[in-house]
Specification:
monooxygenase activity; 96 residues; 3 helices; oxidoreductase
Length: 96
């Protein structure tokens, strides 16, 4: 298994910053308990408070795929669909 990292960015629509923050905080606990989750930390951009950034590490692509298909992530996506202006997920592997 090759460890992978993820940077996931979500930008709230204006006026939905706190709703999105609460929803994002709500998935931290369940995700940290998932098999294969090595790191799952939520950050908020200090210059752009509508931007939230997850820094993640997973044991494998399979662990990340299981996370993506989990019930709490499905519920989160449904909940925040109208609050997110932009989302981006980058999966990377460490080279140095």
């Amino acid at each position: 298994m090759a460890e992978i990292a993820v940077v996931a960015i979500s930008v709230a629509k204006p006026g939905h910053e706190e709703q999105l923050r609460e929803a994002l905080e709500g998935i931290v606990g369940p995700t940290r308990k998932e098999q294969g989750a090595l790191q799952y930390d939520l950050h908020r951009d200090v210059q752009e408070p509508r931007r939230f950034v997850f820094v993640e590490r997973w044991e494998s692509q399979e662990a990340l795929a299981a996370h993506a298909g989990s019930a709490h992530i499905a519920a989160y996506k449904k909940t925040v669909a109208d609050w997110v202006e932009h989302a981006e997920i980058r999966v990377v592997s460490k080279i140095a």
